[in-house]
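User: Reviewer 2 asked us to show a designed sequence for the structure in our supplementary figure. I'm pasting the structure tokens here. Could you produce the per-position amino acids so we can include them in the response letter?
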């Protein structure tokens, strides 16, 4: 009990502090802007307010969500994830794999060991790709930032779009029978039985996992968040109104392909790119085009593709990028048409 209190009591004390800070963000940002020799409604004042309001808002939301996800992730070890996916029928397995990609704490650096683990467990390749697409693109960081900056409707929209791309991308790759395009040494990996073991973590260990996740995740991404919000603040304050509409608006039919072409070779986490997208939308960029740009940057990160080259041939990587990029293109066009 004493050990539990060492973790639980500080968390209970931190909760009202978190709520109080979040409730006072706007007046606090206005007060801080007033301390600078700048007019609140000037270009510089608007950019400064954008940064001073959004930065703590996003960091507070991210801290809370990462803590909760850190607790949830104690139930999803790599072994249990593989066991959940092994032996499932296609379609259902793709949906489950994409959904697990949302709640599991795997990054691009773990792509190869996870891929090998899925092969050993007998998970179909198309199902594995559904997981690999969803994991970086539709994660707690992306959804938290979208909720904090755009509201729950856009966050749910992105969740649905991301899962759709992951599910159908994996289904297409699975139907094409691309196993022959794995590197030869991967094709020779023997399968082994994976057991679904029950979680033995105690309540204290789950709380400690949540706090450790905050240290690891927030401690790693906060510079990218500040950088992204800084870029977004500059766009918000200094880029002329409707400037982005000229090449990222609904009227420019080529805006979605251009956004995807620009986004695919770029590398940024959701933490860095979403605040930029917020500013682009405020300046006239279309929602579908902006979402297509963001999804291509996050889902097709260059570091992950380089890492996956160890297990996939160039032909399979090219096919993977083409199918995912096509799905993102379709998403962008549909939402520019409907919204």
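Assistant: Here is a per-position design you can include in the supplement:
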């Amino acid at each position: 009990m004493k050990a539990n209190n060492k973790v639980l009591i500080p968390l209970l004390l931190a909760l009202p502090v978190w709520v109080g800070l979040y409730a006072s963000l706007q007046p606090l940002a206005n007060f801080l802007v007033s301390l600078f020799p700048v007019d609140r409604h000037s270009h510089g004042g608007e950019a400064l307010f954008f940064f001073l309001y959004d930065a703590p808002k996003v960091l507070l939301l991210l801290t809370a969500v990462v803590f909760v996800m850190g607790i949830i992730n104690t139930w999803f070890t790599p072994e249990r994830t593989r066991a959940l996916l092994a032996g499932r029928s296609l379609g259902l397995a793709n949906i489950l794999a994409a959904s697990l990609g949302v709640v599991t704490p795997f990054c691009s650096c773990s792509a190869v060991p996870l891929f090998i683990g899925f092969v050993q467990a007998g998970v179909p390749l198309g199902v594995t790709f559904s997981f690999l697409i969803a994991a970086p693109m539709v994660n707690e960081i992306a959804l938290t930032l979208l909720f904090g900056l755009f509201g729950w409707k856009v966050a749910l929209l992105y969740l649905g779009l991301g899962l759709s791309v992951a599910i159908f991308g994996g289904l297409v790759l699975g139907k094409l029978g691309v196993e022959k395009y794995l590197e030869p040494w991967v094709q020779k990996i023997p399968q082994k039985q994976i057991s679904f073991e029950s979680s033995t973590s105690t309540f204290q260990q789950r709380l400690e996992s949540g706090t450790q996740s905050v240290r690891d995740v927030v401690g790693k991404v906060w510079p990218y968040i500040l950088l992204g919000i800084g870029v977004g603040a500059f766009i918000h304050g200094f880029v002329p109104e409707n400037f982005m509409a000229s090449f990222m608006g609904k009227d420019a039919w080529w805006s979605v392909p251009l956004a995807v072409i620009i986004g695919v070779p770029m590398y940024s986490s959701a933490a860095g790119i979403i605040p930029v997208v917020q500013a682009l939308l405020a300046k006239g960029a279309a929602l579908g085009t902006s979402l297509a740009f963001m999804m291509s940057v996050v889902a097709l990160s260059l570091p992950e593709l380089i890492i996956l080259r160890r297990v996939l041939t160039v032909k399979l990587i090219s096919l993977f990028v083409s199918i995912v990029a096509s799905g993102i293109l379709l998403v962008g066009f549909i939402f520019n048409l409907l919204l």
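For the response letter, you might also mention the following. The two ends are 54 Å apart (CA to CA). Residues 75-186+238-338 form one domain.
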